[in-house]
Amino acid sequence: MGEATTIGSSVSEDPVGRGSAATSGGVGASRRPVVTLTAAAVVILLLDIVTKHIAVAQLSDRGPVNVIPGVLDLQLTRNSGAAFSLAGGATVVLSLVALAVIAVVVFTARRLRSVGWAIVLGALLGGALGNLTDRIFRAPGPLRGHVVDFVHLHHWPIFNAADSAIVCGGILAVVLSLLGIGLDGTRYGDSGEAGSGAGEAALGADSRGVAPVAGDGGVIRADP
Fold first, then answer.
1. Which residue, of 82, 88, 122, 183, has the fewest CB within 10 Å?
2. How far apart (Å, rounded) are the C-alpha atoms in residues 138 and 136?
3. With 0-12 CB in 10 A as exposed, 13-18 as middle and 19+ as buried, what is 155?
4. Which molecular function GO terms apply here (predicted)?
5. Beta strands per DSSP E along 10-119
6. Which one is catalytic: 73, 149, 206, 223?
């Protein structure tokens, strides 16, 4: 004959406030990446708009302004292409691509749980919005406007703050991917490790001859 030991009086009882606190914490954790994404995008967009406004006001009708000899100049240009003055003349196509990128980022944000990926998407969103703002509101017209570029690193195409944000976001995305971190904040392979741990626990219980049995009053451990 084996003896039965009751562990706990009820597994369904929840102390007052614990369930609501857990729910509140879960909601807060799920919102944090979205807040981070939004904040990053807004900061980058404002930085891009302000720096372009200053560049147009201070650098128009002027030659390159040397900041670091042989390394960095400030030189105002109007770019009809993509980041770093690439794909010149494809302004309308690039405007549509930017709109598509913005739509994808907004859609992806719904399942975002990683702060790192929130920064990536915020950088991409802010950069895309920054250059798209130029293409919509600057001459020669909507979706055909030329983007303001003004930062010139020698031996590198002239760019702006939005371009820098897009590149930095892309680099961080590569780093997170190499680390195996997904959009939901989990690392690739975590579920397999968890399953392995559960299997080992079950084998350990079986080797001791202890089998858990569910009862009305709680969990009953049956010993042979």
1. 88
2. 6
3. exposed
4. aspartic-type endopeptidase activity
5. 65-68, 72-79
6. 149
Which residues fall within 8 angstroms of residue 175, CB to CB, at 6 or more apart?
Answer: none
Per-residue tens of pLDDT for the chain, all 224 residues: 545 444 444 444 555 555 544 455 555 667 899 999 999 999 999 999 999 999 999 999 999 999 999 999 999 999 887 655 565 667 788 888 899 999 999 999 989 999 999 999 999 999 999 999 999 999 999 988 999 999 999 888 899 999 999 999 999 999 999 999 999 999 986 654 444 444 454 445 444 454 554 445 544 444 55
pLDDT value of residue 21: 46
Q: Which of 88, 128, 116, 121 is nearest to 176 (CA)?
A: 116
163 in active site = yes
What is the length of the chain?
A: 224
Phi, psi angles (nearest 5°) of residue 197: -65, -40
In degrees and rounded to multiples of 5, residue 112 shows phi and psi of -80, 130
Looking at 76-154, list the stretches that DSSP marks H as alpha helix, in order from N- to C-terminal side.
91-108, 115-137
Return the H-helix or E-strand segment holding 3: strand 3-7
Containing 169, the helix (H) or strand (E) segment is helix 161-178
CA-CA distances (angstroms) from residue 113 to 36, 117, 131? 11, 8, 27
Domain parsing of the chain, residue ranges: 30-178
- From the list 163, 184, 190, 206, the catalytic residue is 163
Assess whether 206 carries a catalytic annotation: no
